[in-house]
Automatic annotation (TrEMBL):
It is found in: Cytoplasm. One of its GO terms (cellular component) is cytoplasm. One of its GO terms (molecular function) is steroid dehydrogenase activity, acting on the CH-CH group of donors. It comes from Paenibacillus kribbensis. This is L-aspartate oxidase. InterPro entries: FAD-dep_OxRdtase_2_FAD-bd, FAD/NAD-bd_sf, Fum_R/Succ_DH_flav-like_C_sf, Fum_Rdtase/Succ_DH_flav-like_C, NadB, Succ_DH/fumarate_Rdtase_cat_sf.
Length: 537
């Protein structure tokens, strides 16, 4: 069994600090929530790397919200529900589509410079959207612009203290509520922080897989910490693979934005043939799970390791203006997207599941909140609609702040101590163990799954459990323990769900089965794995 805490400790021997609000993570969720919370509270924001290093920074496509008179919240909601394949929580989606536009205005007020055309916000369309409702910045650098604006606000705010390069090891709980966190500084010193409210904004877990669009920091820390603390996590089997990541010798799996297809790019197999019409009437603009599986099928059918993305028919100057980051990145590897077809393949991109929350970001543990990719608000269902993630972070970040107003002060607590006499050393390097885990997940729990393979994955992952008995000290060891926790959750959920739905595709159960599986899969450390009904519209 996964232990309650990763390390032995006695808080009586540790330095103690206090904060009104403790925020873990510095993507759009952490930065935005910190700014809103600091209007009338002292905030401590902890991030394990630099303030601007997060998944948000690499988000290209944009942020989805209704800002055009030709669009409606009802249409945005319908698109989200369809993409979510029956597992979206309608009230969460309703909050997103109705409160998202106000969140956009707040981002603008905080200094985000979205692209404009003739003085109006420039909008584009992405897969599975029925209207042009995607706002973007600097063409294809939306996430970077949002993080730039928000991090400047955070760094200058007198009520926000930022700790960079610090690793949160575990959440501290007592009498069923979260009272803070155990933190490790860059020099190895450990201390603990108590807070009236703790907000997880730690992002996703793309590093579960060998090929991912996520940066190295996306190791599922928040989900793993919350699970160890006893919080409910939900829908972990739903991992979205982005269909179009650069697949070229010497290049990282760099994301080629959904917006490139939204602007007319076509997918071609290794023989130069378009193929999407054979898989879905929406062709290149079908939901991501459909496009990703179609690409994998074409790669297998043609015995190739990639397919091509072709936007060479569009005017070169328009391509360069609309996608400057993608253009420059491809060019640095000798690929000119205005004249060359870009070799691409699917890569792990986004975790639909996470820490289960209500409509105000509250987890199943009192005083513990979750926002952004670490959370499972119910917005994304079985398959996230493109560009809804940044919108979700600002909408539910605001809702968390609303709920903080009614949170009573943290009462006094007794000193905590936890000892499991950890002394074992790892048999192999943590780098080797991480690569082994990633290979297991790619082989058995990737775009396509099968019961036998998932069971094989669980068996292999169980063989890596000695990390939980080891005396971990480094950030890399803590991250690996968190990745292993998330890998077990994903694989367990995928093995239980004997159907195909959204991003979860079982070759042995290829059909969607609403009669049995129109429900969420919920996991808790002590209660195990259970099922939970989806609320009706």
């Amino acid at each position: 069994m996964i232990p309650r805490y990763l390390v032995d400790f006695d808080v009586a021997e540790l330095t103690k600090l206090e904060a009104d609000v403790l925020i873990i993570g510095s993507g759009i969720a952490g930065l935005y929530t910190a700014i809103k919370a600091a209007e009338d509270r002292n905030v401590l924001l902890i991030t394990k790397k630099a303030l601007m290093e997060s998944n948000t920074r690499y988000a290209q496509g944009g942020i989805a919200a209704v800002t055009s008179d030709e669009d409606t919240p009802a249409s945005h909601m319908q698109d989200t529900l369809i993409a979510g394949a029956g597992l979206c929580e309608p009230e969460a989606v309703r909050a997103l589509v109705h409160e998202g536009p106000e969140g956009i205005q707040e981002l603008i007020r905080l200094g985000t410079a979205f692209d404009r055309e003739d003085g109006e916000l420039a909008l584009t369309r992405e897969g599975a959207h029925s209207h042009r409702r995607i706002l973007h910045a600097n063409g294809d650098a939306t996430g970077y612009e949002v993080v730039r604006a928000l991090s400047e606000q955070v760094a200058a705010h007198p009520a926000i203290e930022v700790w960079e390069e610090c690793m949160v090891i575990d959440l501290l709980t007592e009498h069923g509520e979260c009272i803070g966190a155990l933190v490790q500084r860059p020099d190895g010193e450990r201390l603990y922080v108590t807070a009236n409210a703790t907000i997880l904004c730690s992002g996703g877990s793309g590093q579960l897989f060998r090929y991912t669009t996520n940066p190295d920091i996306a190791t599922g820390d928040g989900i793993a910490m919350a699970y160890r603390a006893g919080a409910a996590v939900r829908d972990m089997e739903f991992v979205q693979f982005h269909p179009t990541a650069l697949c070229y010798p010497g290049a990282p799996r760099f994301l080629i934005s959904e917006a490139v297809r939204g602007e007319g790019a076509m997918l071609r197999n290794i023989h130069g043939e378009r193929f999407m019409e054979q898989y879905d009437s929406r062709q290149e603009l079908a939901p991501r799970d459909i496009v990703a599986r179609a690409i994998v099928h074409e790669m297998e059918r043609t015995q190739a390791t990639f397919v091509y993305l072709d936007i060479t028919h569009e005017p070169p100057e328009r391509v360069k203006q609309r996608f400057p980051t993608i253009y420059r990145t491809c060019l640095s590897f000798g690929l000119d997207m205005t004249t060359d077809w870009i070799p691409i393949a699917p890569a792990a991109h986004y975790m639909m599941g996470g820490v289960q929350t209500n409509l105000y970001g509250e987890s199943s543990i009192a005083r513990l909140f979750a926002c952004g990719e670490v959370s499972s608000t119910g917005v994304h269902g079985a398959n996230r609609l493109a560009s809804n993630s940044l919108s979700e972070a600002i909408v539910f970040g605001s809702r968390i702040i609303d709920r903080l107003h009614s949170l009573p002060p943290l009462a006094g607590h007794t000193l905590l101590a936890y000892g499991d006499n950890r002394a074992e050393l790892l048999a192999s390097s943590v780098v080797e163990e991480r690569h082994r885990l990633q290979e297991t997940m790619v082989r058995y729990a990737g775009v396509r799954r099968h019961g036998e393979g998932l069971q094989a994955a669980l068996d292999e992952l169980q063989g890596q459990m000695p990390i939980f008995k080891a005396a971990v000290t480094s950030r890399e060891e803590i991250e690996f323990a968190n990745l292993l926790t998330c890998a077990l959750l994903v694989t367990d959920g995928a093995l239980l769900r004997e159907e195909s739905r959204g991003a979860h595709y079982r070759e042995d159960f290829p059909k969607t089965d609403d009669s049995v599986w129109h429900k969420h899969v919920q996991q808790r450390r002590e209660q195990g794995i259970t099922e939970e009904c989806v609320h009706d519209i």
